[in-house]
From TrEMBL:
Residues 21-30 have a biased composition (Basic and acidic residues). It comes from the Bacteria. The lineage of its organism: Bacteria, Bacillati, Actinomycetota, Actinomycetes, Streptosporangiales. This is Cytochrome P450. Gene3D superfamilies: Cytochrome P450 (1.10.630.10).
Length: 438
């Protein structure tokens, strides 16, 4: 059960409301629903989380208004206001290292495969290790670094859209938005084309490791098997690069070849796997969620068709309006931290709810309005601070390529079935998006 939190208007830090019986009764009547709904949202497989899965934004609004810093079960907290989320993302009192928080050694020999996937990567490391790892891979993902991929991304986008041009109806998520980022990140890493589909399946299976709570035994077994396959695959690929006398110009070869910030094999493999998983998931969700939003806001779709120069701006608005990740990866308090007037104890876990922050009316004008011409848009879809998403620039050029092609070279699309949402607390992800050409 989620517990009582404190809003800034309470003016207290104890977590207790003022001693006014009428106030307490009114608060209790309001608290039960929002607290319970938040707890359901955190619980994998809970059938009551369906409403929030389909449309989480009413819940986010209630949390921002009533319980902006909410303590839930198992020492977990939800933070939902923009200013507080930004403070968590940029703060120095937080760790991403779950193993250290649990007192578990960073030892590949003793960790289960699914934890090895991320434990050695920059996603789960703190400075100075995080700084060293990011310094190695960052040049591939700067604006200049990804600019050389723009023509190739456009070529792949054209090929995928041409493949579905003559279909009466098709699953846009499966055929386009999921496939494009897999193809791009595999080429960037140096994964052979013949292995792309299989690796995408492994990656999808291992994603449950990012979700809160415990999974059923069958899910855990499938995840560990897929994680083992991922690790074996990338270790073999790294071995091949090490033996090669002429390495290709890909990220794995680059990570092997660096001298000053040399990566261990566990760091190399873990970083490669997590870049693949995080890279293709975020972009797939951006593109599919973005198309769904345009289809539900035909006036904005028409505005985009009439002025294709708005595409980059429209992509930023898609990122804000229906963010591809609901939450940033967990932060663990390394000391007592005050957030929004509430003290979070050392060792507790915080979920910074990006999707809620990006709809906060204290930061955005008309936050629930989708406006492709919006100009003041400091969204947090890619996070902020030292863990700002490495693949943000790459995701942007992929989404821009898709929507530019759609509005200039292809007929209009329409929905032919209600979209299917994945049961995920971390990701805002579709399972399918059935569309047809008009």
């Amino acid at each position: 059960m989620c517990g009582r939190s404190v809003s800034r208007r309470d003016g207290v830090h104890s977590g207790r409301p003022p001693h006014n019986r009428r106030f307490e009764v009114q608060e209790a009547e309001r608290d039960v629903a929002v607290e319970d709904e938040a707890e359901w949202f955190l619980t994998p497989g809970d059938p009551r989380r369906g409403v929030a899965r389909e449309d989480p934004y009413p819940l986010y609004a209630r949390l921002r208004e009533q319980r902006p810093v909410l303590e839930c079960s198992q020492k977990r907290w939800l933070v939902t206001r923009y200013a507080d989320v930004l403070g968590v993302l940029r703060g120095n009192s937080w760790s991403r290292d779950e193993l250290a928080a649990e007192g578990v050694a960073l030892d590949a020999a003793t960790l289960p495969p699914s934890r090895r996937l991320s434990a050695f990567s920059l996603l789960r490391r703190d400075p100075p290790d995080h700084t060293r790892l990011r310094r190695v891979v960052a040049p591939f993902f700067t604006a200049r670094g990804v600019a050389r991929w723009r023509a190739r991304v456009d070529e792949l986008t054209r090929d995928l859209l041409e493949a579905v041009r003559d279909k009466d109806s098709f699953d846009f998520y499966a055929e386009v938005s999921r496939r494009l980022p897999v193809m791009v990140i595999c080429e960037l890493l140096g994964v052979p084309a013949d292995d792309m589909d299989e690796f995408a399946r492994w990656a999808a299976t291992t994603l449950s490791v990012l979700e809160p709570g415990d999974d059923p035994a069958a899910v855990q077994a499938a995840r560990e098997a897929a994680a083992t396959s991922c690790l074996e695959f990338f270790n073999a690929l790294a071995d091949e690069r090490v033996r090669s006398t002429r390495r290709p110009d890909d990220l794995i070869s680059h990570m092997i070849g660096v001298d000053e910030d040399r990566l261990s094999r566990d760091e190399l493999v873990s970083t490669a796997v997590m870049l693949h998983i995080a890279g293709h998931e975020t972009t797939a969700n951006l593109v599919s969620n973005g198309l769904l939003t345009l289809l539900r806001h035909e006036d904005q779709f028409e505005l985009l068709r009439s002025d294709p120069s708005l595409v980059p701006n429209a992509v930023e608005e898609m990122l804000r309006f229906d963010s591809p990740a609901r939450n940033a990866l967990t932060r663990i308090a390394v000391e007592p931290v005050e957030v929004g007037g509430v003290t979070i104890p050392r060792g507790d876990t915080v979920y910074a709810v990006l999707g809620s922050a990006n709809r906060d009316g204290a930061t955005f004008t008309d936050p629930d309005t989708f406006d492709v011409s919006r100009t003041n848009n400091p969204h947090l879809a890619f996070g902020s601070g030292i863990h700002y998403c490495l693949g943000a620039n790459l995701a942007r050029i992929e989404a821009q390529a898709v929507f530019t092609r759609l509005i200039t070279d292809y007929p209009r699309l329409r929905l032919v079935a209600e979209p299917r949402w994945r049961d995920s607390f971390v990701l805002r992800a579709l399972e399918g998006l059935e569309v047809a050409w008009e």
